[in-house]
Amino acid sequence: MPVAIITGASKGLGRAFAEALAARGWDLVLDARNADVLQETATALEAYGTRVVALPGDVTDSRHRTGLVERAGLLGGVDLLVSNASALGAEPLVRLAELPLEGLRRALEVNVVAALGLVRQALPSLRAAPAGAVLTVSSDAAAEAYETWGGYGASKAALDQLAAVLGAEEPGLRVWAVDPGDMATDLYAAAVPDDDGPRPDPVSVVPALLRLLDERPASGRYGAPALLGAR
């Protein structure tokens, strides 16, 4: 069966997508920092009859990234790499004039450097896969200027560019950057705790991600609402 590595997989979009893949028979290697929550997720997904490896850790740790790729190798290789783990840079978000530089560095390390590091380690396996693909979770903040979202948005814009170049450099793979749109997630709650307005459940975004896997469009940046609306 195909194998996916999904970072930030214990909750939100990462978990929702992992469950959809498990329902399709994919084997999974899941990452998150909270070991207990990650194990709960893995246990729930094992009910689908697939192999699920929960490997807690920090994606900025190269040894942890190596472990993710090695565990995927034991399952048969890496067919899909999903970079979903994200850091905001400040919680709650603040204007650039107040953004701690250490927070910006953390956002860049998690959202950009770690994502590239994991891609580099997984590339031999992805190239050998029958339909290797990389999916990076972007944000509309990567393309729009929203007050207080500067540090996070800059990191996601950098991730978008890395994905675009990787797609050009690796024509045998599919490399998709996906803007999921608004979602009710812990990340958003931490970013803007005073905003308690209704937002879509991350589960609603999953059909857009599955469509990419099913139809394998050209590498590029896609918006989940457009993918869903074009059906």
Brief sketch in words of this structure:
The protein has helices spanning 12-23, 35-45, 62-75, 101-128, 150-169, 186-191, 206-215, 224-229, and strands at 3-6, 27-32, 52-56, 80-83, 133-137, 174-179, 220-223.
How would you characterize this protein structure?
- The chain is of the alpha/beta class.
- Helices cover 46% and strands 15% of the residues.
- The chain contains 8 helices and 7 strands.
- It has a 7-stranded parallel sheet with strand order 3-2-1-4-5-6-7, with helices on both faces.
- The longest helix is centred in the middle third of the chain and has 28 residues, at 101-128.
- The chain is globular and about 50 Å long.
- The two termini are 27 Å apart.
- The model has no long low-confidence stretch (mean pLDDT 97).
Provide the descriptors you would attach to this structure in a database record.
8 helices; 7 strands; 231 residues; alpha/beta; 7-stranded parallel beta sheet; globular
